[in-house]
Amino acid sequence: MHTFEIGSDFYMDGRPFQIRSGAIHYFRLHPDDWEHSLYNLKAMGFNTVETYIPWNMHEPHKDEFRITAETDFERFLGLASDLGLWAIVRPSPFICAEWEFGGLPAWLLAERGMRIRSNDPRFLERLALYYDMLMPHLAKHQITRGANIIMMQIENEYGSYCEDSDYMRSVRDLMVERGIDVKLCTSDGPWRACQRAGSLIEDNVLATGNFGSHATENFAALKGFHKEHGKTWPLMCMEFWAGWFNRWGESVVRRDPEELARSVREALREGSINLYMFHGGTNFGFMNGCSARHDHDLHQITSYDYDAPLDEAGNPTEKFYALQRMVREDFPDARTASPRIKGTLAPMTLERCGLAGLFETLDTLSEPLEMRHPAAMEDLGQAYGYILYRTRIEADTAGEERFRIVDARDRAQLFLNGRLVATQYQEDIGEDILAAPKPGINQLDILVENMGRVNYGHKLLASTQHKGIRTGICVDLHFVTGFEVFRLPLASADKVDFSRGWTPGAPAFHRFAAVVRDTALDTHLDLTGFGKGCVFVNGFNVGRFWEKGPTRSLYVPHGLLRVGSNDIIVFETEGIYSDELKLSSRPVIDERAGEER
Length: 597
Fold this sequence. Notes:
Helix content: 10-25%
Distance between the termini: 62 Å
Structural class: alpha/beta
Radius of gyration: 25 Å
CATH architecture of the largest domain: Alpha-Beta Barrel
Number of strands: 32
Oligomer: single chain
Number of domains: 3
Shape: globular
Strand content: 25-35%
Number of helices: 10
Largest sheet: 9 strands, mixed
């Protein structure tokens, strides 16, 4: 059985060991692709894989722990071990990772007054129950049990959020009490303020840093913090950023491959690293996160390509080859090999074969809740997707009346008698909407989209993380009462009735069929010509699209396809659509996104 120790260096079986790790998130890849990406990590010359464990994927509903084929981290760790890769695991409660709510489950928000990421007894009780289920699965994969996990992290970048050593100790104790006995670490910005607030160095927990350049300076800061506490530990960058994530409406972030290779070489001459990301993958479904800003939060896109050494589909980029050349030059003992490359379907144009309006098929998708006043998604047992609030109002004038959506997130569309009147987003919500109802009784529908909760910073505790309408709808000066509320999490589109018809200019489901002969090939859905929404491939939600870019396509891994006819349903909310859907062999990028036009 192997041993891993931390002294003045990392030691594997008593010999100095440099950790050359790459981040691959099993939950952002189709499981059919795990082995492919892990093999390429080994082929680049690295020896370790790192992954988070997102709480919201494994306990999506309170007290319902699950490990599905898509989230079977034990299989992922086993594949890594078979390839000779060690593993670093960074479990919840919080992961950041540009992931919805930083990996925290949305149902925690229904516990009003609970202070997450703190020693609040209610939060620790929920975390303890989750760890009761999670930790036994991880414990069996530790190096101390003859497997490949060499190190695990306590919380994540806590010094960039709060300073509460007692809470950090509580998380550590919950892990240790449930069988975790490998070496523990923390990670944060390398400067003293973050390290002081977010480490447990006084408890002999390894403190690591996160950065993407200037390794000599950043490692010097980390080393100074170690020295201040009498430690001569090895230096490690737990997140050496290979690229960056992207947000709607902004330009794609890119980093020069040779510059990255030089920066990684500088870091490896000083210590050990975990390259974040090695393979970024995809924010499938509604799992993208959000960057918190004072007045206008910025939601991240579906692709988590990250400009990483492997692209979103898992194929090597110029960064891969630049890093592999560096490893071969500087680490002749490292084993490198030719990477594996996946193929793609030939470009194809699909004709629309079905169309159904959201309002027409609403009753097949959701059972309405009768409520006097609107309520937030989380208070109604819903975490993600859309929610529709319907009420009826009586016209009081012969002309325009004033409507207001009070206290809602993130994006609201107001329809009067089935016709779109206004779309409001973040800072616009609450402003007057003028519309002329017809004489008598009118139907008012407000469709609200949860575009993703923040994954970093102070707004984790803000009311803005409660999605939907939190207060109410005003007509003139008074709140309206009497609502039907339709929850639309849209985990699938299986219940859409395409015989119901549709209304132009309103949200609708557009169905296409793709005939596939080779299911070993990936593809990309080119959504050019469509406005905003999400797409289902054979019932699986592959993510959001938005015409504002920078991406105009969605990646579809081969594991979602089947031989013969494949069902593709585009849910589009703006009334902007095309009668054709194209399959592309590569991503469709709007390189002008973010520019002034």
